[in-house]
Each structure stands twice: as structure tokens, then as C-alpha cells.
Amino acid sequence: MKSVFEQECCVCEFVAIFDMSQPAVSQHLRKLKDHGIVKERRSGQWIYYSMNTDYPYYAFVQQLVNHLPSQREGMSNLQQDSCCEN
């Protein structure tokens, strides 16, 4: 999830990072969005997710996520082969 703090991400990027099916990733993201933790932006057929900085517990979530390893290098590699148009 740290990648969402660092940049906006498409579902296809999460599928590759977590090695999960697209429906499973979409279901988890929908739950996060329903609770206001992440927000989405649509661009054509693609949906991009990022952290909702207006979430009341954003600072707390950010502190937790800061203890996770960065996915920046993995995200950089994915962007070269991305299925979506960033």
C-alpha cells in the first residue's frame, strides 16, 4: 500500500505487485474507497487510486505505512510494461 502514498496507481499495477487476481484487487480497493481511505480518478477505461488526504485518520495510516518497504522501484519497472496509460 505504500505505493499509493508515493503515487497514483492503477488496478493493473496492484495486480502485478501483489500477484493477485484483478477481481480480488478491485474488491479490496473498493472497500478502502468505501471507507474513505483511498480515492479514485477515472481516465478513459482506467481507474487510478491514491490516498485520500482528507481521510480523518490519514496521519495515523501514514505512520503505519511508513514502516512498510517502498514499492517505488517495483512501480518504476511496472510503468515501463504497464497495461494502462499513466
Which helices and strands appear, and what pairs or packs with what?
Layout: H1 2-6, E1 9-10, H2 11-18, H3 22-34, E2 38-43, E3 46-51, H4 58-65, H5 72-80
Helix pairs in contact: 2-3
Keywords: DNA-binding, Transcription, Transcription regulation
Protein name: ArsR family transcriptional regulator
Organism: Fictibacillus macauensis ZFHKF-1
CATH architecture: Orthogonal Bundle
Category from helices, strands and their pairing: alpha+beta
Taken in chain order, the helices and strands follow as HEHHEEHH
Low-confidence runs (pLDDT<50, min 5 residues)?
A: none
How are the strands of the largest sheet arranged?
A: 1-3-2
CATH topology category name: Arc Repressor Mutant, subunit A
Beta-strand fraction estimate: 15-25%
Number of domains: 1
Average pLDDT number: 81
What is the CATH H-level superfamily? Answer: Winged helix-like DNA-binding domain superfamily/Winged helix DNA-binding domain
Overall strand count: 3
Number of helices: 5
From the spread of the alpha carbons, the general shape counts as: globular
Gap between N and C termini: 18 Å
Our Rg estimate from Cα atoms comes to 12 Å
The CATH C-level name is Mainly Alpha
Largest sheet: 3 strands, antiparallel
The helix content is 40-55%
